[in-house]
Specification:
Elements lengths: L1 H33 L8 H16 L7 E2 L10 H10 L4 H27 L4 H10 L4 H9 L2 H18 L5 H19 L4 H25 L4 H7 L1 H27 L23 H10 L12 H25 L6 H23 L12 H14 L7 H26 L8 H10 L4 E3 L2 H10 L5 E3 L14 E2 L11 E5 L10 H4 L4 E5 L3 E5 L3 H16 L1
Parallel strand pairs: 2-3, 2-5
Antiparallel strand pairs: 1-4, 5-7, 6-7
Helix pairs in contact: 1-4, 1-5, 2-3, 2-18, 3-4, 4-5, 4-7, 5-15, 7-8, 7-11, 8-11, 9-11, 9-14, 10-11, 12-14, 13-15, 13-16, 14-15, 17-18
Length: 543
């Protein structure tokens, strides 16, 4: 009786443990948002909040007064931030925190649904938990904290999950699920070309490979008989084609209709042009495996070095999982086969594109992460293990590795932020407290100060501090048509150089009103002085 009681308790603890782990990761994410996140925002992230505020003012889905970047994203984090800004109009940091709490909760829920559609069972909770923990530093910055890449991921995973669930649905429900998947895919395509490349093209290739394998393995002599035997694989192929065509329609709307109505720089000019001799295909692919926690430049025997080594092992484990699943391909169900091949086609399509399109950053790989983690969980779920508890041990080891990498990433980011400029929040608060409202700063400082002051500052962002020419990039378009009144100029000596070497300061007639050793602020009576300083600086450079 005592053994049965102990066994029942262990089963309950094991059933509860993944939920506790998921909740702990979610709590860590929100703590990072709420506490150090107050001063760690960068200008790309801040632009999302600024745009959300403008959209609330305009009452539109897409802004007429905002200059977007390389993409016009119809569905983005603004849909959530607009709501939270209504709740916290004077505290943008709290609006961001609550907004990310909503998005991360929705993301975890979607990952649970994806796991269920693959047939992972209870191990699906571990999968959702793994994707909530910030196991990679870039994943922490651009997904868990910034939220930008969660949107791309969210949209394609919704389409994929609907297609996978339709495999076990009745004919009528199957049709409706695929229609819903196509609608979401079209919305995703309206965000730009990224989803077509990162997911839809690999999805079609993966579904085609799975169908061809199934047809060859069916041993049927007629097409009708073979397709009947391979009905699930056929529906997967149909779903892949339908969602891809829908996504393409959305992209056509984006590039041919919306591009003429709104301001943004599209990817239409991207050509086949290898990025450089250093960015070879093998190095680009290794960047993907390094996203699981590996970091360059840390001591091997320090905590960060040990965590980095563990992250490298997690990436190697993913490679091992791919090999093992391909080896046992016939023993997987249709959805698990698709996910396995999808990981391979994503690596192939994205790797080639990032190598030869001449436009690449390591964080482009972030959208592939749900598929990568799903592959790891499929391997644990389907591996032929004979020792009692071996599957639980594998799961706990992977969860422990992800936890270690995540804690290291959070610590590293707080101590040595990759993007944030330490102390910028203090000078921004000082400007507001002393009555300043409009001014100039370079890009990586400008939008940050707007968010840090909850919109109380309005900052124009020239390319550098030698001129007042404003580029159309992540700022309101009225910055291109008028000058700030009684402007200040903020010089970040760590990134802009010494203040006396900046043309606007050297040739202007401003007064230094703030200097903390890194940031210097100069006040001007009007923008006329700055325009004159810019002309003098231009003439000096020409001579």
């Amino acid at each position: 009786m005592e053994k049965q009681t102990n066994g029942g308790i262990l089963k309950k603890v094991w059933a509860l443990l993944p939920w506790l782990w998921l909740a702990a990761g979610y709590g860590l994410d929100l703590w990072f948002q709420l506490v150090p996140g107050r001063w760690m925002v960068d200008s790309d992230m801040a632009s999302e909040m600024m745009l959300s505020n403008f959209l609330n003012q305009e009452g539109r889905i897409i802004s007429k007064i905002w200059y977007y970047s390389t993409e016009l994203r119809v569905v983005s984090v603004q849909w959530v931030y607009r709501f939270t800004l209504l709740l916290f109009p004077n505290d943008w940091h709290m609006a961001r925190t609550v907004g990310m709490a909503i998005m991360l909760a929705a993301f975890a829920g979607l990952m649970l649904l994806l796991a269920r559609s693959i047939g992972l069972g209870r191990i699906g909770v571990w999968m959702a938990g793994a994707l909530i923990w910030p196991y990679g530093r870039i994943y922490l910055i651009y997904a868990i904290y910034g939220g930008h890449y969660l949107v791309y991921t969210f949209l394609y995973v919704v389409s994929l999950t609907l297609v996978l669930f339709s495999l076990a649905a009745s004919r009528k429900k199957c049709v409706w699920m695929n229609i819903a998947a196509c609608i979401v895919a079209m919305l995703s395509g309206m965000n730009g070309v990224k989803t077509l490349m990162v997911f839809q093209a690999p999805f079609v290739l993966a579904a085609m490979a799975v169908l061809i394998f199934a047809l060859n393995a069916s041993e049927e002599k007629t097409w009708r008989g073979a397709l009947q035997v391979c009905s699930q694989e056929s529906w997967l192929m149909a779903g892949a084609l339908a969602t891809t065509m829908s996504s393409f329609v959305g992209y056509i709307i984006n590039s041919k209709v919306l591009a003429k109505m709104y301001s943004f720089k599209s990817f239409s000019g991207v050509t086949w042009n290898r990025f450089g001799v250093d960015w070879t295909l093998d190095r680009v692919l290794m960047d993907f495996f390094h996203l699981f926690g590996y970091q360059d430049g840390v001591g091997v025997f320090h905590f960060s070095g040990i965590a980095s080594g563990v992250g490298l092992l997690v990436g190697a484990w993913l490679f091992f999982c791919i090999v093992r699943l391909v080896w046992r391909f016939t023993k997987l169900n249709a959805a698990q086969r698709l996910i396995t091949v999808l990981m391979l086609t994503m690596l192939a399509v994205c790797g080639i594109a990032y190598t030869y399109f001449g436009n690449y950053c390591q964080y482009f790989w972030l959208t592939c992460m749900p598929v990568a983690v799903a592959v790891m969980m499929i391997e644990i779920k389907t591996e032929e293990l004979h020792l009692p508890g071996a599957r639980a041990v594998l799961t706990l080891v992977l969860a422990g590795a992800i936890t270690l990498c995540s804690l290291n990433n959070v610590r590293q980011e707080i101590e040595h932020p990759a993007l944030a400029h330490v102390g910028l929040d203090k000078v921004a608060d000082w400007l507001v407290d002393n009555g300043y409202k409009e001014g100039y700063a370079t890009f990586w400082n400008g939008n940050c100060m707007v968010e840090m002051t909850s919109g109380k500052l309005d900052v124009w962002m020239p390319g550098d501090l030698n001129n007042v020419n404003i580029e159309g990039w992540l700022q309101p378009d009225y910055h291109l048509t008028r000058y700030p009144e009684h402007p200040f100029v903020l010089v970040d000596t760590a990134t802009d150089g010494p203040a006396e070497e900046c043309g606007l300061i050297k040739n202007g007639h401003g007064t230094e009103v703030y200097n903390d050793g890194r940031y210097a602020v100069y006040a001007f009576d009007s923008s006329d002085n700055l325009c004159a300083a810019a002309e003098i600086t231009k003439a000096e450079h020409e001579n």
